[in-house]
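Hi F.,

I've been meaning to write this up properly since the lab meeting, where we talked about keeping a consistent format for the predictions we share between groups. The idea is simple: the sequence comes first, exactly as it goes in, then the structure tokens exactly as they come out, then a line or two of notes. No screenshots and no reformatting. I'm using this chain as the first example so we have something concrete to point to.
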Amino acid sequence: MTIDSIIEELSQRVADNIPISPASWCEAAMRLETLATNLDDDLAILQGKMENKEAELLQEEMTSAKAKTLSKLCIDYPEYLKLKAKIKRIDSFIITARKRSTINNFNT
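Output, unedited:
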């Protein structure tokens, strides 16, 4: 299973009003956390590349603002932003899944 398939499956079940057990919510949250670690690593690598480039440019006595802007050119910045957004959505989904599992426990 992939991150996208887990989120898509649960979102579809919610949209279709198909009951989801608390255990399923918890399992989905755990799987997403595990799979998201790779994304966190990828994001850290990209962030590190940008920061290294920024430091290089600052040593060349470039202004901070210009160095920060130019450091974004050393990576695929749109992909970086998409990755950040995806991680944020995953985090939100995990929080929601945990809350849903708790709410469902009180209803049973």
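Notes:
Helices lie at 3-15, 22-59, 64-71, 77-107.
Residues 46 and 79 are 10 Å apart (CA to CA).

If this format works for you, I'll send the rest the same way.

G.
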